[in-house]
Amino acid sequence: MNIYKKTIMLLMTVILVSLIFACDRITTQTTTNTTPTESTATTTQTTLTESSSETTSEITSQTTTNTTTSQTTQTTETTTQTSTLHSTETTTETTTEVTSTTTTESVIVVTEIELVDNEKKFYRLNDEFNKDSLELWAYKSDNTSFQVSSEDIKIRSFNSSTSGKKTIFIIYDKFMIETTIYILEEYAFEINMAYYETAINLKGNNLKVTLNNIINNYTQLLYGEARYILQESDVDPNNSNNIVLVYLGTSIKKDWDGGATWNREHVWPQSRLGVGVGYGDDDFPSKATDVHNLKPADPNENATRSNDYFDYFNTNDTYEPRDEVKGDIARILFYMATMYFDLSLNDDPLSSSGLKSMGILSVLLEWNDLDPVDDFERNRNEVIFSYQGNRNPFIDYPDFADLIWGEEV
User: Fold this and answer.
1) What letter does residue 144 receive in the DSSP assignment?
2) Mind listing the pLDDT tens digit for each residue in 74-106?
C-alpha cells in the first residue's frame, strides 16, 4: 500500500514538474510574440507572478520598456500632428495675407478725371496748344487724388488754322473729357463773361445785332422808379447820403424833392428818342425810361445842355461835359444806339432831331479811349443790371465800340 502511494506521489511530482517547465516555456514565448502595449504587458505580468519571481522581474522590465515606447510613440504622433497642423495654419494665414495684399493693390485704379481749370481758353490763329494751362486732377478708387502732369495729358481735335469756337478732347489714362476753346480772329479780343459769349469773333453790324439780342432781354421800368434807382446807381462813393451830378460833378443830398435839387437827365435827349415820358398816372415804360440813359443832373445845367450833340467845345449845337465823364457819356450813347435800332450815331451836329440821331460819333470814340471805365461806372452798371436785368456792354467791354463803328469814321 505504501509502495502504491509512493508510486502515485512520484507520478504526480513528475507531472507537476513537467507542467511547470511547460508553463515556463509557453509564458516566455508569449512575452516574446506579444505586441508592446501597456494592456498586454500588464496581463503577462499578472500571469508570471504566480509562476516565478525571476520571470516576473524580467517581464516587468520588458513591460515598462514597452509602455514607455508606446507613450513615446503616442507623444511623437501627437507632436507631429500638432506641428503639422500649426505649420499648415501658419502657411494658410501667410498665403491669405499675401493674396489679400496683392489683390488690394491690383484694384487701385483711376476712376475719373476732372478739369478744374483751363487758364487759356483763347488762342490766335496757328497757335499751338498749351497743356501747361490745364489743371487736370485724377481720382483713384482708394479715395486719393493727384494732379496730372501736363506731360501725361494728350490733346485731341485741336486745330488753330481757322477761327471760331472749338471743342477739344483731353485724355488721360482711359478717360476723356471735352472742353471749349476759341480761336480768335486778328481783330477780336478775349471775352470771358458768359453773358457775351455769342459776341466772340464778331464785328460791325453782326456784332451790333448780337449785342442787341443779348441786352434786349430786360425788365421795362417806369420813369418814377428811376428816381430811386439813381440814388443807388450814382451814389457818392465817399458819402452814401449823397449822389454825384453828372455835368457839374458836385455831391448833393440824394433825397428826391420833386426835381428842385436834381432831376433825371436823358443823356440821349427825349426830343431825339421819338417818345416822351409820362408822369404820375400817365407813366409808362419806353426807351425814354431806360435807366441806362438816365443820370442825376443839376436842373439848370440840364437845361443848358438841351438836346445838343457832345463835342470838345460848347456851341449852339454842341455841349462839352467835364473830362471825368466824357467816356461815361460816350458809352451810354453806344448802349442806346445798340439797344434801339431806330437810333443812330453820326458826326453831324446839325442833324434834325426827327432823325433820332446823336454824336459826334468820332469824338465819342476818342472819349471812350481817353476816359476809361472806372469803379464808379462799374458800380452803376451792376446796380442797373440788378433792377433792369440787362447790362451796358460798352462798360464791360469798351472795345466793342471800335469793332462796331470804328470803320465808319
Assistant:
1) -
2) 433 433 344 333 444 444 444 444 444 444 457
Q: Domain of 175?
A: 110-186
Picking from 46, 73, 102, the residue at the C-terminal end of a domain is 102
Task: Please check whether residue 290 is in contact with residue 336, taking contact to mean a CB–CB distance below 8 angstroms.
Answer: yes
Q: Look up residue 159 and give its DSSP letter.
A: -
CA nearest to 220, candidates 24, 34, 390: 390
CB 265 within 8 A of CB 277: no
Q: In this structure, are 45 and 129 located in the same domain?
A: no
Q: Which domain-ending residue is among 72, 102, 132?
A: 102
Domain-embedded: residue 198: no
**CA–CA separation, 54 and 168 (whole Å):** 109
The answer, as to whether pTM is greater than 0.85, is: no
Residue 219 sits in the same domain as residue 366: yes
Backbone angles phi, psi at 210, to 5 degrees: -65, -45
Q: Which contiguous run of DSSP H or E holds residue 179? A: strand 175-184
| 310-339 residue pLDDT tens | 999 999 999 999 999 999 999 999 999 999
